[in-house]
Amino acid sequence: MEFSFSEDQNELRRTARRFLEVASSEMRVRSAMESEGGYDAATWAQLSEELAWTALTIPEEYGGLGMSYLDLHPLMEEIGRALLCAPFLSTIGLGANALLLGGTALQKERHLPGIAAGKTRATLAFAENNRMDAVGVEATYARNGSGYLLRGKKSYVLDGHTADLLIVAARSKGSAGTEGVSLFLVPGDAEGVKRAWLPSMDQTRRLASVELRDVNVSDDALLGDEGRGWRLCERTLDRARIALAAEQVGAAEMCLEMSVEYAKVRKQFGRPIGSFQSIKHKCADMLMMVESARSAAFYASALAAQDGDGLEEAASSAKAYCSEAFFHCAAETIQIHGGIGFTWEHPAHLYFKRARSAENLFGDPAFHRERVAKRMGL
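The structure corresponding to this sequence follows.
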């Protein structure tokens, strides 16, 4: 496997960087952080309608561009560099992937064109606590005439307060473990759905709680096979983890660049601080971590593009390593910048908070190491 991007992929990266330098400047990021929805609607319209980012991995028959998951990788890196505040990871990494992996032809025709056009924002509501396995699914469903009745409460739902489409994990009464879990397509404005934004440390990415108060859905709301939805949920999460890993690589690289630039201009004792061994070695270590993280994420993206064997292990390996690389780089950026790195006015804290939240999103490094170990038979 050649670990390099094609010219088309590099052009996508260049186009994305030019756009995000304006659309996701530090000023725009701070403005989005303070907004009710957590993102700028005009920016979302531009990236979806003009640049067709939301159509990238959607098949052509559903209004998309039909490109591969590896084509998504450089775009996610640029999104990470710019700390883009938008429901992109939730819609493409979670919502679109769940439909592509488990949707019927009718479900795909109904929802994917809207996602491709940026008209439908979607997300996956699976967690209710800190558990990342099927045991943590406590919301229930039961047959109700020609449909299903959903009850329960979901937490930490990525962009759940603004999503037009919720893909909800619930289990049949009396079931346990991975058995009995099903996924349902629920409109965000359905009767009985109560949503609220959950304030968190990272204001650049919104999480929400979703309460299901006797929500009725029709038979065709079932996504995948009834009672076997957890495997579909895991497959969806793995693809979202790979996209997140690529995002973390881009953000870590931005931390490195900010640190190197500052180390060249900040002077102490009459010389740039980058000339001191303690600083230059920090930057060198950051570079090695960024490049190693990029290799791990690239490999996982390539496997996702081919739907190859070992995707689960590659996704967990990439998520674990890229999480730690990003957090390390974000923390070192603050140390290298010294006093100014701790201030609200400097962007370093925005990357640090994003690094901490992304580290735990879709499972922390310890969870993923355990997952890889089990795949090794340990």
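Strands lie at 122-125, 140-144, 147-158, 165-172, 181-187, 193-198, 207-218, 222-223, 267-268, 271-272.
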